[in-house]
């Protein structure tokens, strides 16, 4: 009987040792599933499909509409306050052209991005958005505000030529560059002829 009891005790101790040696494996196995690499994998699979980058073309549209609206505000100021007919004529051309472009961009946005909330735009420098008060003649202040304003539109348009997805946006960008480059050249000529001032932004 003592011999059998010793054998039973040895078997029992062996069984306990085996259980203890396997216990860490049962504890550590689940923890390996929660390592940083595994968690990052889970994040990518569950979060990435729901994360959508705002389309560039939508950002361009939102920025350019806002920018054009600023030009129209300044042009309407010119219709009320400009002394020279050349400035009033330019103001009328700006209002007509840029309102048409605003209408076109709004139409595109409604068609292409019907569910997209308004964005903050491209975040690029836009230039002045109104003609500031000051002692200088209004016509000069208008020119000195509209030149850098146009330069802001041209910078955005050149960016769109490189990054826009839709041909319609690239075509509009090219049109903006051509029209506003010509208007800047004309305003620089007036600035020098009327006030003897070389545009410092050249």
UniProtKB/TrEMBL annotation:
Residue segments, region Disordered? 24-48
Alphabetically sorted, this entry's keywords are: Signal
Signal peptide segment: 1-23
Q: Where along the chain is composition biased (Low complexity)?
A: 24-40
Parts of the chain that traverse the membrane: none
- Identify the residues that the record assigns to the DUF305 domain, covering every copy: 25-108, 137-191
Among InterPro entries, the record links this protein to: DUF305_CopM-like, Ferritin-like
Entries under PANTHER family matching the protein: SLL0788 PROTEIN
The name under which this protein is listed is DUF305 domain-containing protein
List the top taxonomic levels of the source: Bacteria, Bacillati, Chloroflexota, Chloroflexia, Chloroflexales
């Amino acid at each position: 009987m003592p011999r059998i009891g010793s054998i039973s005790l040895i078997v029992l101790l062996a069984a306990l040792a085996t259980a203890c040696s396997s216990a860490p494996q049962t504890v550590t196995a689940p923890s390996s599933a929660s390592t940083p690499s595994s968690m990052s994998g889970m994040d990518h699979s569950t979060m990435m499909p729901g994360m959508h980058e705002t389309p560039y073309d939508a950002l361009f549209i939102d920025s350019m509409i806002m920018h054009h609206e600023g030009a129209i505000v300044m042009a309407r100021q010119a219709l009320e306050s400009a002394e020279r007919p050349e400035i009033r004529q330019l103001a009328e051309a700006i209002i007509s052209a840029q309102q048409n472009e605003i209408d076109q961009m709004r139409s595109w946005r409604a068609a292409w991005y019907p569910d997209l909330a308004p964005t903050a735009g491209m975040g690029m420098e836009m230039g002045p958005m109104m003609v500031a008060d000051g002692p200088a003649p209004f016509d000069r202040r208008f020119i000195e505000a509209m030149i850098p304003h146009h330069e802001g539109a041209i910078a955005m348009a050149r960016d769109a030529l490189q990054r826009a997805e839709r041909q319609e946006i690239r075509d509009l960008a090219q049109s903006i560059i051509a029209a506003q480059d010509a208007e800047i050249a004309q305003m620089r000529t007036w600035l020098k002829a009327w006030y003897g001032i070389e545009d410092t932004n050249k």
